[in-house]
Amino acid sequence: MLCASDSVKTMTVVQDTLEGISLLQVEGPLRTPVNSWLLDEVEARLFRGERRLVINLAGVTDIDAAGVGELARAYNVAAAAGATLRITHATRRVRVVLQRLGLFELLNEDA
Question: Is 19 helix (H, G, I), strand (E, B) or coil?
Fold first, then answer.
């Protein structure tokens, strides 16, 4: 389990791989100040050759523009590497924010 820095004490990223899908479970707020823990983990998995990434957002309690930017950067890095990155189990709060920005359909695993 990865724990974020002191600036984002409550965000953790839990890692797992199941049936060729690399699962990252994010818990806590995804908001300012956002560090690069999530993006770093996505890049590490891409470096290991993993090409199907899913970020479980069920445990994300809040998201702001910085958190949305971190998800968008992760998506773009994955796409540039020829990988897919999707989100799943977004809470209502997260889903509403991403829908308003037109990103939910792009990132949602079930879309």
Answer: coil
* Structural domain of 61: 2-107
The total number of structural domains in the chain stands at 1
**pTM score, whole prediction:** 0.82
Place of tokens 């997260």: 94
Among 59, 110, 108, smallest CA distance to 85 is for 108
CATH number at residue 74: 3.30.750.24
Examine the pLDDT at 9 and tell me if it is beyond 60.
no
CB 60: neighbour CB atoms within 10 A? 24
Q: How far apart are CA 39 and CA 43, in angstroms?
A: 6
pLDDT tens digits, residue range 56-72? Answer: 999 998 999 999 999 99
Q: Helix, strand, or coil here: 100?
A: helix
Beta-strand ranges (E) seen in 19-77 are 21-30, 52-63
